[in-house]
Amino acid sequence: MAAQRYMALGEETVYGTAASTTVYLALAGETLELQKSRRFIAPDRKHVTLRTVSPDSHVAGSTDVYFGFNRLGSVLRFLVGAPVTTALANGFRHAFTPGLTQPPSLTVGVMREVQRHRYTGMGPTGARINIGGAEHF
Fold first, then answer.
1. Per residue in 83-114, pLDDT tens?
2. How far is Cα 111 from Cα 118, in angstroms, rounded to an integer?
3. Cβ atoms 32, 108 nearer than 8 A
């Protein structure tokens, strides 16, 4: 039985609040992990030990996904924000302009073999898209 590996994306209406995932992409590889760190306050003269402040956590890493042209619009919207859509005589034109609108925060689900990991408040920090031919998804 082949292992299931996919990434599920959902657009959050409120930052950090989990959303239903609506876009599913085949996952070639990923290195996402929750990283926790603690901030320390310098001790005052009455105490010897350092006092900790609530732990900070963030998710870091990268993903490599496969997607076809049917998912290209969703991926671009998640990367650069919503497009400006213009009606044409034979359809629509969707113009994606980085910086014109804010990309949404995302709920990201990563299925690793038999366990699903879910992260909220995610957003891309960069992207590289390789376009190949002769493959159909």
1. 899 999 999 999 988 887 888 888 888 887 77
2. 9
3. yes
